[in-house]
User: Fold this.
Amino acid sequence: MKKQELNLNLKTPYESTDDAWNEYPRPQLKRDSWINLNGKWNLSVRDVTGVDTPVGEVTVPFPPESRLSGISRTLEKGERWVYSRSFALLDSFNSGRILLHFGAVDQIAEVFVNGIRSAAHIGGYLPFSVDITDVLKEGENHLTVVVADDLSLDFPYGKQRRKRGGMWYTPISGIWQTVWMEHVPESYIRDIRITPSLDRVRIEFSGGAEQKYISIPDAGISADFHGDVFETEIRMPHHWSPEDPFLYRFTVSAGEDRVESYFALRTVSVEIRDKMPVICLNGKPFFFHGLLDQGYFSDGIYMPGGPEGFRDDIRNAKKFGFNMLRKHIKVEPDIFYYECDRLGMLVFQDMPNSGRYRYLMDTVLPTFGLKYSLPRRASKTRRCAFESMSREIVHRLYNHPSVVYYTVFNEGWGQYDTTRVYRELKALDPSRVWDAASGWFKGGESDVISEHVYFRKIRLRPHKQRPLVLSEFGGYSCRIDGHCFNNSKNYGYSTCRDVASFTDALKKLYLDEIVPSVRNGLCAAVLTQLSDVEDETNGLLTYDREILKPDQSVMLFIAKTLYSTFRDTHGKK
Assistant:
């Protein structure tokens, strides 16, 4: 078999420096007293016999498989990464408590502070924290993180596969988000839960002194209150939307603790209007014009070189007239969702899949019409891991106004007990739209009818009770030489010879197939995809983010046509 020619030096414009990821990593619960622990760490590999071999200096928060990490090495089965570094506390950290935070570590992590095992965590997509106050000492302290990741199918893994290629990507492991320490008083606010409507907001606090003070300058509100709940009417409410992403910023003081946060007045709902089911934003029928967003970068893999990479992806999608990104079976750092909140980009959030993928049963047969499958089972370990992760995702993203829609299972990958899982997750957050099974293998209950269409004409039938969502389509490949990851293979669902034919193909697809579907009840459409990813060259952007392929004016014309068609179909209510 011919060896593939991979361009492992493909660079994005977001080349990292040691302090590239120095922004406060949790914008919805922000304090001034923190230390960023990103940058150079020592990295070793621990083999199956327990012997550690130094690999070199790794740059956190990039996975060691990436070029930006400085390592570019894969963790083999049975091996473990051993991260280590020293740190000293600031003089201002001489009272209260010290919390150590990890944005995400893939997959199984043990944390040691000054040789004392202080924390353990399983799951590669979510943050975890530990109070390390009682194990710290004066002067220099030592931090060690031991990480295992055998790509077990029992744990959510997304698009990672040890044998990458086609629609499967280079696996990552280890620390891949920001590591930081935070100084808090003995009594501190641990969490905030924000529930808005169009003219009110309810803010619930976990922890902190009973007596609190809140200031919401843009609402003209300053108030003392007692307890863990603050609820108020917002006069002359300013609603959040992609066109006008207005955020109400506020501060809360509770004893010695003070935090900054924000909220937005925004609702999303499924309703019947003129006998047609629709998804409404702020009480009005809304068309969600979206792109599939895998969240991969050519040099950092799971992370861009800096937050500007996230911001540019959002801005570029908006330049083309899109108002939504479907975050595909990956969960991003909080900063990504904050930028969507701030810049005005709606998010359809997938749950990362676990379980075995079967090409024939999960893709080939459903693509050609066989969209019903035999009941599937999942082990207790896999059920616990997937459902625990999903519950935590719902909790973590609850406050973000940009997040309006969740996908539980995608194309049958790891799908099981669909209706039960849908019901239990929806009960945690009924304020969002829930897609139980994106693509096919309908499990019974769901808020929407969710279809994937490739390799055939898009002819969608309306449903009387559920909004119609085209959650994947397109996938047209347009290869740009010099900006490809794989110089010997190409993956896509149809091939365009150049950017002109790519633009023409997209225009024809939208005008001939998507616009008629909008008249037939389509409420959301997700084009594959935002950027090229490794072998896939079906993005609107190249993998290195250097070239925007289609003609911007044509894409804006498509967007304008979609939005006007939707308004004409559903009136101006």
Notes: The chain has three domains: 34-184, 189-263, 293-570.
